[in-house]
Amino acid sequence: MLQYVARRLILTLPVLFGILLISFMLTHISGDPTDLILSPDTPDEARELFRRKHGLDQPIWVQFYQFCVHALQGDFGNSLRFNEPATKLVLERLGATTELAVTAMLLAILVGVPAGVIAAYRRNTAADVAVRTITLLGQAVPSFYLGILTIIIFAVWLRWLPSGGRGTWLHLILPATTLALNLVALIARTTRSCMLDVLNQDYIRTARAKGLGESWIVWVHALRNAFIPVLTVIGLQVGLLMGGVVVTETVFSWPGVGRLAIQAIYARDFPVVQAVVLFFALIFVGVNLIVDLLYAVLDPRIGYR
Amino acid sequence: MKNTIRKLLLTGMLSVATLAGAPAATLTVAQNFDPQTLWPNGTTASDNLNAGSAIVEALFWVDPHGEEFKPLLATSYELEDDTAVLVKLREGVKFTNDEPMNADAVVHSFNVFIDKEKSPAYARVSDPFASIEKVDDLTVRIKLKYPFPPIELALSQLYITPPGYWNEVGLEAYGQKPVGTGPFVFDTWARDDRLVMKANADYWGKLPEGIDEIVWRPVPDDIARAAGLTTGEYDVASNLAVTSAMELENNPDAKLVPVPSYRIYQIILSSLEEHKSPLMDKKVRQALNYAVDKQAIIDNLFFGNAVALKGQVLREPQIGFNPDLEDYPYDPEKAKQLLAEAGYPDGFEITYKFPSGRYAQDREVSEAVAGMLTEVGVKTNMVVLEPGEFLRQLRAKELQPMAFVGLAPQDDPDLQVSQYHSSWRYSYMNSPELDALIDAGKQEMDRDKRVQIYRDAMTLMRDEAPIIFLYGGVDFYAVTNRLENFMARGDGRFFFYDTRLQE
């Protein structure tokens, strides 16, 4: 098991290097940040000083080499806009993003899984149709639109919730729900189809024949067996969550990493973009490693060597 | 279950009520971005400056009410000759860390200001400044490299910092926790969330009435800014979209403050040899001006909230605005006739570039213009550009032969018109007559003569038609009814001097 984890972690290194290379190339071929940070009528002399100060006057391969050397030490360089270390800017906002993402994920699991189970168990009833309709909508409505809609309804019309910012748990409701809705849809739909499959298995009939209670059969026997694909989906959707955070944090003025990322991208603030990309990649890889390890917990037949 | 939900919602409502009804003495301002630095000479972005200049003050300021130049840390200035300016400083002013605001502080701040590495964003206005000398404790003499008529513009952007504290913490840290002489002092800053400033009890001047605390909130989404203003979470919201503004107009608790912007929208018509196109012919450029119904764009895309240009790039309150000029009227027949005279009776095809997401309604305006040009036979191949790439192309002189831009230079005719000088990095025209006028206006210290020079330049530009004259933008702010006397400038700047917040 430990050997497996070690091997997986080592395999992660080329992945992260690839991510660094791609993000570096994509950001650098997209243009020169000087044009965005200094106004167009800035004299050339001042622009050259700015470019030299941030190493933008070097050949691109020198920039990449420098960047890799420093990145290995956890230093992504100073933000071009804030003049502060990019790593610091990301870490400062990590708490807010974690709070939002974890709440959204828990919400998605707590709503999505039971909804999927009920839809499967009461297949083709009104409950099933309701779950399917709502999840379809949840997957179809883009979160920037949903976010604005919830602000107008719950903040402006009803005055129940604040329109944005971070503070009390009330501030968390709208952004977390908006972020969760997409995931709820996916989790519910996956749970439903996996449950349908499992509920037709022989061992479920056996369990019924043994006289086990119906809810015990559904929520323990069936769900545990149906859960592995759901877990995979959850692991993969961490990526979606990271993407969703970028939009949701902007709409709800949430002071997190996603909003930092979008502003950095617009301003071609390379160091910050790279720090955020690598940070998101680390989380994605980490969560999926944990998901793989959880398979063994759910299904004793799976072992890792 | 029902009861629990009701209870939860009720607690929710109560908490929101407490939030909204925060102490009357707090003023919450929602801007687009969190400042990158609170040192005003660190960037020219208005969101930074609005917050930073509540703490750090300049020698002079330009009051948004009437755009009048007024003393602040200086009491007066005097031109000793064309290249020497004597500045008298205000007596008895201290920074909030007790350092004195005197000639030494101004000398220090000046030297940082003219250092193009430390203040690259101000390189253009600081360029005429050569050196400074302390005359006595409250007088300094500034030497210029060349006569510079917009000297007031430059003096109003020189922000004064305490040399002791500055040298102790350095430029970056100063921007994160500034010490100044202003009506507010830095309190706390949770990045991207809230920046809190408290009123400066020892302020040398008159504090804004009734404001004990200002909270600056970055709210990137403009619909969310308008929503927060409606719910009372914010007292001031800047940079609203025209659609949000129209909705807020009917809100009884808030005032809408529309401010004509310094940004002039235009379509570049490159007449340069190197950009060979039908636009090299003056008649074609004039024809395109006749072909575009500018009023229809203003009325339909901005609900009337844009300023028609009078066939010139200078705004009505500016020095050199020519009151005798009128814009090209909308006349597609005349356009067709001019095109035929120029040898294009059936029109032509041309590349037309525009940004998406850089300016208000940029895509919509560009598409409307393209549609109108098609009516007179000019078929455009539209190229949409991401804002960053758009700015790169502007500077690289690649926005040719035809492109939509909104240029917002600082408030002086030279800074505005120099952009059409043949030597300017992104000028898309080459007219020796215009160059001569620009060169003359640049160093003319006599105001009346300067006015005449720019009036002549405007007449020439209208005839040469290096651009399609479109419209001047309007910025929208909304403020709570409790805040009195709020006003902003066309460059997105606002101050709280002379404002009053009611209980």
Automatic annotation (TrEMBL), chain A:
The chain crosses the membrane at residues 9-29, 100-121, 133-157, 169-188, 226-252, 272-298. Belongs to the binding-protein-dependent transport system permease family. Pfam families: BPD_transp_1, BPD_transp_1_N. PANTHER family: DIPEPTIDE TRANSPORT SYSTEM PERMEASE PROTEIN DPPB-RELATED (PTHR43163:SF6). The keyword Chloroplast does not apply. InterPro entries: BPD_transp_1_N (IPR045621), MetI-like (IPR000515), MetI-like_sf (IPR035906). GO terms for molecular function: dipeptide transmembrane transporter activity. Keywords: Cell membrane, Membrane, Transmembrane, Transmembrane helix, Transport. It comes from Aquibium carbonis. This is ABC transporter permease. The keyword Transmembrane applies. One of its GO terms (cellular component) is plasma membrane. It comes from the Bacteria. CDD domains: TM_PBP2.
UniProtKB/TrEMBL annotation, chain B:
SUPFAM superfamilies: Periplasmic binding protein-like II. One of its GO terms (biological process) is peptide transport. GO terms for molecular function: peptide transmembrane transporter activity. It is found in: Periplasm. One of its GO terms (cellular component) is ATP-binding cassette (ABC) transporter complex. Keywords: Signal. Pfam families: SBP_bac_5. Residues 1-24 form the signal peptide. Residues 68-420 form the Solute-binding protein family domain. Belongs to the bacterial solute-binding protein 5 family. This is Solute-binding protein family 5 domain-containing protein. It comes from Aquibium carbonis. The lineage of its organism: Bacteria, Pseudomonadati, Pseudomonadota, Alphaproteobacteria, Hyphomicrobiales.
